[in-house]
């Protein structure tokens, strides 16, 4: 099995004509942009680079763009502060069915149009996922994640990073965070299994109307807001809970936070989808919230929810090339 290797020390473009089935990218500071295409070839452009060179290798269908001293294993624990003094802007166009692994330390990452599995690890720096139809897993320390029109299963773990899902239509969303907030806007074509857990982060979920889910949402000391008449709000002091069935109850929604607030908001009816707008219900009170999804202003938005506490609303050869 032949192996090709390039050392990229200055801005360069590179075309890879042999098949690429797996992409691994690991950078420190800067930006990674990965786009899935219908073409069989792969294109790489490093438009900016400072510090040590990036090593590009292609072997056995796997294309790797990374620093020699930045391994994937233990990536989130990489704390070599001197090693942070580097930056690169990397753009890749790969076949849509490529399996993508992206690791960023202090860098922004954008992955779009991928139908294969996508795995993202981030220490700091925000990640944006757009139009992914394969399974998605994202792990961050403090980096935020925004997922737009993702139709595959989504799994998110973070210490303090925020999660924003816009028009999520995948069969499952799993998210765990210590202090990060979660805003999840769902527009599923079928049953969705949603499980969100946070310690102190706030959770806001917007469901379709009519919705189809068994709902259980709990907070130990935060407030609860509910825009659905078919759900019951339990508890006047301390712990609060929302339970009930919406529609046939074929989907599942579980949301738990210890001290954060929970809000269940309502999307406009399906026939009004072309005129969707920004959420008009008040978000939960507390720490600063991530920006809510926006859209044209012609739709009146969801009915203001009722706050339960107040009653109001809220092996081979190697070619090495230095570019």
What does it look like?
This protein has 323 residues and is an all-beta fold. Helices cover 0% and strands 51% of the residues. It has no helices and 26 strands. The protein has strands at 3-8, 12-16, 22-37, 42-50, 54-59, 62-66, 87-95, 99-112, 118-122, 127-130, 136-140, 145-148, 154-158, 163-168, 172-177, 182-186, 193-198, 203-209, 213-219, 224-226, 231-234, 240-246, 251-257, 262-269, 306-307, 318-322. The protein has a 26-stranded mixed β-sheet that branches. A hairpin with a 2-residue loop joins strand 5 (54-59) and strand 6 (62-66). It is elongated, with a radius of gyration of 22 Å.
Short description:
This protein has no helices and 26 strands. The protein has strands at residues 3-8, 12-16, 22-37, 42-50, 54-59, 62-66, 87-95, 99-112, 118-122, 127-130, 136-140, 145-148, 154-158, 163-168, 172-177, 182-186, 193-198, 203-209, 213-219, 224-226, 231-234, 240-246, 251-257, 262-269, 306-307, 318-322.
Nearest-angstrom radius of gyration?
22 Å
Shape estimate: elongated
Strand count: 26
Q: Which structural class do the helices and strands define?
A: mainly beta
């Amino acid at each position: 099995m032949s192996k090709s290797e390039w050392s990229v020390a200055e801005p360069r473009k590179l075309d890879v004509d042999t098949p690429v089935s797996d992409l691994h990218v690991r950078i420190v500071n800067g930006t990674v942009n990965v786009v899935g295409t219908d073409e069989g070839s792969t294109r790489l452009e490093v438009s900016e680079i400072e510090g040590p060179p990036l090593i590009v290798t292609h072997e056995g269908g796997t294309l790797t763009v990374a620093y020699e001293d930045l391994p994937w294993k233990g990536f989130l624990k990489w704390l070599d502060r001197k090693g942070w003094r580097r930056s690169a802007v990397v753009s890749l166009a790969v076949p849509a069915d490529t399996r993508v692994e992206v690791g960023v330390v202090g860098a922004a990452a954008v992955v779009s149009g991928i139908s294969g599995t996508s795995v993202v690890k981030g220490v700091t720096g925000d990640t944006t996922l757009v139009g992914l139809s394969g399974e998605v897993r994202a792990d961050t320390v403090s980096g935020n994640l925004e997922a737009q029109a993702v139709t595959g299963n989504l799994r998110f773990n973070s210490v303090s990073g925020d999660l924003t899902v816009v028009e999520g239509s995948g069969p499952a969303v799993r998210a765990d965070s210590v202090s990060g907030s979660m805003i999840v806007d769902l527009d599923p074509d079928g049953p969705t299994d949603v499980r969100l857990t946070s310690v102190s982060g706030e959770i806001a979920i917007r469901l379709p109307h009519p919705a189809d889910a068994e709902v259980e949402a709990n907070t130990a000391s935060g407030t609860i807001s509910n825009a659905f008449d078919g759900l019951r709000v339990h508890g006047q002091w301390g712990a609060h809970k929302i339970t009930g069935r919406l529609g046939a109850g074929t989907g599942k929604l579980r949301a738990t936070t210890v001290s954060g607030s929970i809000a269940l908001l309502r999307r406009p009816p399906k026939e009004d989808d072309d005129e969707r707008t920004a959420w008009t219900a008040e978000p939960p009170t507390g720490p600063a919230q991530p920006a809510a999804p926006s859209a044209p202003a012609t739709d009146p938005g969801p009915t203001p929810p009722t706050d339960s506490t107040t009653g109001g609303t809220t092996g081979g050869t190697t070619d090495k090339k230095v570019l």
